[in-house]
Amino acid sequence: DTGVSQNPRHKITKRGQNVTFRCDPISEHNRLYWYRQTLGQGPEFLTYFQNEAQLEKSRLLSDRFSAERPKGSFSTLEIQRTEQGDSAMYLCASSLSRPPDTQYFGPGTRLTVL
Amino acid sequence: GDSVTQMEGPVTLSEEAFLTINCTYTATGYPSLFWYVQYPGEGLQLLLKATKADDKGSNKGFEATYRKETTSFHLEKGSVQVSDSAVYFCALMTLANFGNEKLTFGTGTRLTIIP
Question: Does the pLDDT value for residue B63 go beyond 90?
Answer without folding.
Answer: yes
